[in-house]
Amino acid sequence: MPDTITINGTDHPLPSDPRTSLLDFLRHDLGLTGTKKGCDHGQCGACTVIVNGMRINSCLTLAALHDGDDVTTIEGLGTPENPSPLQVAFVEHDGYQCGYCTPGQVCSATAMLDEIKAGFASDASADLTGEMTATAEEIRERMSGNLCRCGAYANIVAAIRDVAGQGDAA
After folding, report:
1. DSSP letters along the chain, please?
2. Which top-rank group of organisms is this from (predicted)?
């Protein structure tokens, strides 16, 4: 029985070359080019995908390590006809600028909002045991692994706060 990985709800056999990164598997083997190769060193976040509900840099992991895992890429979050709430908010708040980092930003923000709902604290959390909220400071800390060369950070934070129900206030 071949090893498989579930990508956006569809099972795929793992690549035959065990040295293939998850990023290269997504882009080259499956043609899912929404996930971007930025630095290829895990420093920019352009390759962020969601694996079993947690965000990871797909350039830093081998596809072979994800046998049986459930991976969600930007293509699995929404479509042009039916975008996710975060994708809509990024457009409404002009949080995409050139757009290169946007898929990673949206995947990271999606998982980050789930982390906040689950009560996972960050270095910016005021209370480590209480209810977490998506304050601007909290979002900036949690999204610090996703870089935007255009500098759309204020708009990205506004988009995330809007989806989190926190409004546009900083």
Report:
1. ---EEEETTEEEEPPSSTT-BHHHIIIIIS--TTS--SSSSSSS-TTEEEETTEEEEGGGSBGGGGTT-EEE-HHHH--SSS--HHHHHHHHTT--TT-SSHHHHHHHHHHHHHHHHHT---TT-S-SSS-----HHHHHHHTTTS--TT--HHHHHHHHHHHTT--S--
2. Bacteria
List the chain residues with pLDDT less than 50: 1, 170
Integer angstrom CA distances of residue 109 from 3, 69, 103, 142: 30, 20, 10, 9
For residue 154, give both structure tokens: 């204020």
Write down the pLDDT at residue 127.
73
Which domains does the chain carry? 4-77 (3.10.20.30), 85-163 (1.10.150.120)
- Residue pair 105/132 in contact (Cβ under 8 Å)? The answer is no
